[in-house]
# Entry
Amino acid sequence: MSRNRRPRGGDSDIRADAFLITSGTIGRVAIAVTRRQALGLRLRAQQLGRNSGTVADTAVLDIGVQDTGTDGALWALAVRGVDHPPADDLATVWTIRGAPHVYRRADLPGVAAATAPFSDADAGKRIYDASRPLKAAGIPNLVALDRVADAMRSIVTAPMVKGEMSARLTAVMDEPYRRFCRVCDAVHLYEMPFRLAALRAGLELQAGTSPPVLQPVPGLTPAPDVPAHLDVVRAYLRLLGPATPQHVAGYLDAPVKDVKERWPDDATEVALDGERRWLLARDADRLDDTTPDATLLLAPFDLYLQARDRSLLVPYAERAKELWRPLGRPGGVLSGGEIVGTWRARKAGSAVTVSVALWQPADRAAICEQAERLAALRGLRLTSVDVGD
# Structure
């Protein structure tokens, strides 16, 4: 598995102490970016409200589209103009934060390289408490992930439900890899090594399966180098910038040190509300481009809502708390370049109702159109749209 290769395309690593040097400035004054410009840049980069598009030209597939919940990846693609992507063009794998993400199938070798831990310390951070018994047993975290992947590869030779695969895996792995789970009242592997080793083993998730079904991807091996468009640090800056290394590290669950070591040479320093941040150089000239004024229902785990500077998106603490609930979080209503409320969809038989709670006025006709589109994507009949203030 390629772990620490540079992305193709001319990027090179910089030292962590390079952050002590002011760079990417005009006349030694950092480029000032307003909140409105920053949000507009993200909206355009993520193609939100685009009328039509393809799998090939959809930017969020470079970093992966999280497929959590009923309205996951397919709805995220739909609000970016890709309503019915060819199923064979997409693949679902466990990657960032151990969550299922959808990518272009053709990109899987590059994705396997791009989303692998940067270092052993990074692997330890990503697998959380599973690293403690490994350390006590003298097993490096990356070695452990490779051992789990080898076992998974030998077990899953045809589609297999996660539970069956987990039971077989537990039977062949020894004590440092296993734990007693109170929820399941059983002994099995720690969850994060299980998830993060799956792609290393060449396994994908069958789309739309619950519980998940894993299956081998014939011939999948990681790319020797990370393609530039799949490099996760660059992708975060491109799609969720301006950002800091801490923002990127939080998104990846990676150590800040590892992110700094992979910071792009063409990252330009800017000042956003007095905070030092960075953009890719090419984006510094696009801050004032026109942003489409779309009204959209964003899924709870849409990439736009995954930025690690939540207070920039929603400056009011009570509203942020409502949007980013720890459990059962709603989706966000985007209108006029702002998150202006939350929404939920409830299915009953072959019908669905959509309820919207607005914090400020929004285009209600556009909200209803979005609800109709959501119902059609689910193959359900829309019974009502309840919009409250």
Q: What stands out?
A: Confidence is low (pLDDT under 50) at residues 1-28. The radius of gyration is 21 Å. The first strand starts at residue 31 and ends at 33.
